[in-house]
Amino acid sequence: MRAPVRVGLLGCGNVGSALARLVDEHADLITARAGVGIEITRVAVRDLSKARDVKVPSDRFTDDAASLVRDPDIDVVVETMGGVDPARALITDALRAGKPVITANKELIARHGPELFTTAAEAGVDLLFEASVAGGIPLMRPLRESLAGDRIHRVMGIVNGTTNFILTRMSEDRMSFVDALAEAQRLGYAEPDPTADVEGADAASKAAIIATIAFGARVAVDGVYREGIAGITEDDIDSAASLGYAVKLLAVAEELDGGISVRVHPAMIPVHHPLASVRDAFNAVFIEGEAVGELMLYGRGAGGGPTATALSGDLIDAVKNLVSGAKGATIGELVDRPMLEIAETESQFYLLMEVADQPGVLAAIASEFGEHGVSIKSMEQRGMPQSSDPEGGVRVSRSASERAKGSDDDARLVFVTHRARESALSATLDSLRSVDSVHRVGSVLRVLGDED
Ligand code: NAP
Ligand code: HSE
């Protein structure tokens, strides 16, 4: 019987400790599937005094991560510490030392993936990162292997569990944004710095990784357009629901004429769309391929258990390859493709505005849309909300000139447009703001999954 493969674990927080427990609790089946036992031999953390819910003996812990990577008694490195530094240098050192690496670190792969893929290829060892995108959902392997023969046109999905959890709780339980975020943190869904979730940076990293693999292109994460959910109010969610839409934070990677567009932003999607029913910390990814057509992958996108499952699958793969002397699938040659600006993309739009409730106002507004080639799909007039705060609970606060123009007799108009260029919509908004009878342009949200 071969001696167990010795794993060095970098980080033992939500994800690392869940992996240590899984390796212990599923030892028999992991041994059977890997063909050899797997042992967590050393663990690196920041604070050695913290209590950890794992069965790894305390003398295997160190606060010297570099020594773990250099240790000749470590065969494989699993990185769950997060962040770019020192993870980047540690992983590079491990790969150069011929040790396969498994990581859950989406920020690192999004920023330095191509460099690390090259290092792994040169060293002839595996660098696997299934856990970095969409937690427990198998996504990297399907894109890299199962769909490798198809041309992928678009990937659209909910890839951040924390924000989906917050939007679900706000919509279903009237929970405040702050309380819902605190609950997501307590459940281990949020990033160590949760602004990465709320402001869309986590989803942008995942979108960059998805686009890199799906299109075989070098996708710089800084080129990914992003908006988070901090500006989404209960009013937006209610208004969307009354029109038959759900508000979700979406990541979109698509091939368009002239290049690729990768973006993250909140969007309204029709309630009958499969992504609309994805609740809580669940994630789902919609893939559109030339030959395969549409397919959707769904599951738990965050949390220790699901993420540890993805890590353990990669670990078993890497161990099998290590033992047999083989090497898993590589990313292949990445090409450079133009990244399109958000202004060059198209979608439908939802707009809410407050206007003077007088004859001729609608015609003046409609003519501004027409002027910029934006076609209106539907319009609804609503009364002003009762007993609202001065901001009326909508996203864009009133400027002094807007306040000067407003009155209690205003009406609220809600528009949904047909597909239009983002640049045309921006020009329409600029013009609308200068129309006297338009007292305020409130929320503006993209609408996806309807006409696209
Ligand atoms: P976490 O709970 O904050 O755990 C991070 C761990 O890394 C802690 O044990 C910490 O040590 C250790 N660590 C950090 N810096 C270190 C350093 N310089 N040297 C040694 N140890 C260090 O974070 P997490 O939620 O497990 O996330 C870890 C990674 O998984 C991140 O890349 C994250 O993006 C990714 N991820 C998370 C989830 C999720 O649902 N949470 C899902 C998918 C991917 P101490 O415990 O001593 O502080
Ligand atoms: N913070 C991330 C999320 C963890 O909420 O989706 C999973 O990558």
3D structure, described in words:
This protein has three domains: 5-136 and 304-324, NAD(P)-binding Rossmann-like Domain (Rossmann fold, 3-Layer(aba) Sandwich), CATH 3.40.50; 140-300, Dihydrodipicolinate Reductase, domain 2; 345-447, ACT domain (Alpha-Beta Plaits, 2-Layer Sandwich), CATH 3.30.70.260. The radius of gyration is 25 Å and the shape is elongated. Residues 387-398 have low confidence and may be disordered. With 452 residues, it is of the alpha/beta class. It is 36% helix and 24% strand. α1 packs across α12, α4 (87-96) packs parallel to α5 (106-123) and α13 packs antiparallel against α15. The longest helix is centred in the C-terminal third of the chain and has 21 residues, at 304-324. It has 15 helices and 17 strands. The strands form two sheets. Strands 7, 8, 9, 10, 11, 12, 13, 14, 15, 16 and 17 form an eleven-stranded mixed β-sheet that branches. It starts with a strand and ends in a 5-residue tail after the last strand. The protein has helices at residues 14-25, 27-34, 65-70, 87-96, 106-123, 140-146, 161-173, 177-186, 195-198, 201-215, 234-242, 304-324, 361-371, 400-405, 422-433, and strands at 5-10, 38-44, 61-62, 76-79, 101-103, 127-128, 152-158, 225-226, 245-256, 259-270, 282-289, 293-300, 346-355, 376-383, 411-417, 420-421, 438-447. The structure holds NADP nicotinamide-adenine-dinucleotide phosphate and L-homoserine. L-homoserine (HSE) binds at residues 135, 160-162, 189-191, 197, 202, 301-302.
